[in-house]
Amino acid sequence: MSLIVQKYGGSSVANAEKILRVAQRIVRTRKAGNKVVVVVSAMGDMTDDLITLADKINKNPKEREMDMLLATGEQVSIALLAMAIHKLGYEAVSFTGPQVGIITDTFHSKAHIQDISPGRIRKALSAGKIVIVAGFQGQTLEGEITTLGRGGSDLTAVALAVALKARHCEIYTDVDGIYTADPRVIPDAGKIDIVTYDEILELASLGAKVMHSRSIEVGKKFNMPIWVCNSCKDVKGTLITKENKAMEEVVVSGVALADDEAKITLFRVADRPGVAAKVFQTLADANINVDMIIQNKTKTHSTDISFTVFKNELQKALKVVKDNAKKLGVGEVASDENIAKVSVVGIGMRSHSGIASRMFSVLAENRINIEMISTSEIKISVVVAGDKGKLAARKIHKAFGLGKKQRRSKVRVKR
Amino acid sequence: MSLIVQKYGGSSVANAEKILRVAQRIVRTRKAGNKVVVVVSAMGDMTDDLITLADKINKNPKEREMDMLLATGEQVSIALLAMAIHKLGYEAVSFTGPQVGIITDTFHSKAHIQDISPGRIRKALSAGKIVIVAGFQGQTLEGEITTLGRGGSDLTAVALAVALKARHCEIYTDVDGIYTADPRVIPDAGKIDIVTYDEILELASLGAKVMHSRSIEVGKKFNMPIWVCNSCKDVKGTLITKENKAMEEVVVSGVALADDEAKITLFRVADRPGVAAKVFQTLADANINVDMIIQNKTKTHSTDISFTVFKNELQKALKVVKDNAKKLGVGEVASDENIAKVSVVGIGMRSHSGIASRMFSVLAENRINIEMISTSEIKISVVVAGDKGKLAARKIHKAFGLGKKQRRSKVRVKR
């Protein structure tokens, strides 16, 4: 008898009808001969409603009390889901995060799981019960209720799967799986059948937003296979797993487009050791996230540095840099909001040469100028003019054969 | 520094505005130099909303899961109330029932408190914090979340007051205190200043519905003074306390009217030992609550027995009695739904003779026929025709000088 951990997000349990549908899927998995542990998020807009309510009372609530408040959302879901399973004639029992010994550190609103004591879950499973666990929450050793921050329910699911030595973890959502690109931008984007943890980590940070990187990192660390599936359809989802030989056939797994960044260029930066460090330390001190950084030394005694920040932090970043220009040894400062970042990701590119040149050629053929380039072992990102971003993503997507009609499922994985 | 436990019901915290108002009252009590522990119920209709939601999923939910669901209501309230107090610049911390060691038995949906370990509350109080505790909930020794049933938050408050050796417990509601009668029936009804646990126990069971009798019983057992006050006004409420000399001046404390009962009469019941016991055991086995019981032996070898049940259980009760008539030795069975029960309650009547005759005279003067009479040491109840109930209550209320203009506060109690 295999143990499977399933996680259902807020949109999958948004109302009574949907909860009953999810219960049917869970029971099907049980009937197929598996032990099932289910992690569930708060219903639809419930978390937002609670935040709105809190905001009416205190614009700046303490995080401890926000955790106390928000943890109720998942508790409502687990009780209702257990009732729905009972209605179908199956045994089920719900537990809060604290009840199943999910111990976290003390950082309210963004706590990290430190330990899980799955004894209570094991006992319920042995008694033949389906176990429903509240996602997103835990408690400190002192018994304080904490929440895990963005993507917290996914994290609960993957961590529980690891702690329980599950066969795999299934993350149910309202899309069919992970796509080669955002289907709203590239209608031809297709579902990826199999992908590595590393590729998803790059895709997520590049704006794919399918799963939070924290969960993927845990999956990677403990080699827990993660399926991303559609809770409303019976289609095979995307399997996130460790690298294997067969996967290297796929050179590029996906294309990501991000249009929420802006570029800042510092001209005539003094070319001596430690200057760049000082610039980015100053930005970090102001809590500004920096994404790409490009420095290109010219022949003079000064250099130009360009970097990107989120658009909503551009003004703050510009102020910080300008206020400290003298101290930092920076000459002129310029910025550009009209940019887009296009990236390709794929573990295959490590062993296939020429990916970068193919990408740049496609852009050149379409008269799209490249403003910045940044690469990692499994990723190439370019910054182009903002109004050229979608065109660039589409052309690159096609050039790497990612379109639905172009691709054939080269890798078959048995679920 | 005195410790005061305050309890606010659902209508007092029904929205953000009301929560902020409650926070101000709490802070006032703190500023006056008291340590404050606050017990709070779920917001307004939240519990009903959750029940409706559960009903859409499963008409017959397990009580364990209902407890899991409903316990969230109070958890939302404590977090929001703590945030409201923080906004006023005071330190506060919220705790769920399980967090403050409220240990109950395992009877889900109607659990009894077995133990309270107030260490965590004491620590927070010592740190100068206002402590907010979720009412209505606890956990079993095995860590299962339970709820305490009707009046559960009052019970939490009184039990915490006892465990913490508070000076007194304040129950805030949307009325000024406990009245000499239901003001909807008798507009002249006035607030009672001081009343004994025993009187309230009689008044509650007679339909006064101010506080659930379980909380009063705990208050009585541990001699914890309980104030019932209006959360929206600054008026002195009603003090529920043990008997003292001064209180005996007040002969009758209040008049209660109940119109939700029906009368069943069993004619020609065999007059031999054990018959009555069998009749009421049969009803108890069918889970039917019986209130008044009157038996009046006549000269023959049979007797008539009358008793009252709640109207909504009348048909069930009739069926049980008729189905078992032969076995029970019962002749004819009759019932009457058109009845009303009027009761007067007062510890003073123990030492003042003639209360019963005065009550019966008032009824006679007003041509109201008495169908049943039942008395206890501090209570006299009569059953009259249903359409005469309000008139009877009004006339008796007046006859005992309970009207606002009639009474003067004979007893002054320092708060």
Summarize the structure.
The first copy, chain A, has 415 residues and is an alpha/beta fold.
Topology at a glance:
2 copies of one chain form a homodimer.
Chain A: E1 3-8, H1 16-31, E2 35-40, H2 46-57, H3 63-87, E3 92-95, E4 102-104, E5 113-116, H4 119-126, E6 130-134, E7 137-139, E8 145-147, H5 152-163, E9 168-173, E10 194-196, H6 197-208, H7 213-222, E11 226-230, E12 238-241, E13 254-258, E14 261-270, H8 275-285, E15 290-297, E16 302-310, H9 314-323, H10 325-328, E17 333-336, E18 339-345, H11 355-365, E19 372-376, E20 379-385, H12 389-399
Parallel strand pairs in A: 1-2, 1-9, 2-6, 3-6, 9-11, 10-12
Antiparallel strand pairs in A: 4-5, 7-8, 11-12, 13-18, 14-16, 14-17, 15-16, 18-20, 19-20
Top keywords for this entry?
VC0802-like, four-stranded antiparallel β-sheet, 415 residues, 20 strands, eight-stranded mixed β-sheet, 2 domains, homodimer, alpha/beta, Carbamate kinase, 12 helices
What this model shows, in words?
The structure is a homodimer of 415-residue chains. In chain A, the strands form five sheets. In chain A, strands 3-6-2-1-9-11-12-10 form an eight-stranded mixed beta sheet, with helices on both faces. In chain A, strand 7 (137-139) and strand 8 form a beta hairpin. Chain A has helices at 16-31, 46-57, 63-87, 119-126, 152-163, 197-208, 213-222, 275-285, 314-323, 325-328, 355-365, 389-399, and strands at residues 3-8, 35-40, 92-95, 102-104, 113-116, 130-134, 137-139, 145-147, 168-173, 194-196, 226-230, 238-241, 254-258, 261-270, 290-297, 302-310, 333-336, 339-345, 372-376, 379-385. The model of chain A is unreliable at 408-415 (pLDDT under 50). Chain A folds into two domains: 3-174, Carbamate kinase (3-Layer(aba) Sandwich), CATH 3.40.1160.10; 246-415, 2-Layer Sandwich (VC0802-like), CATH 3.30.2130.10. Chain A is α/β, with parallel strands linked by helices. The interface between A and B is medium-sized, with 35 and 35 residues.
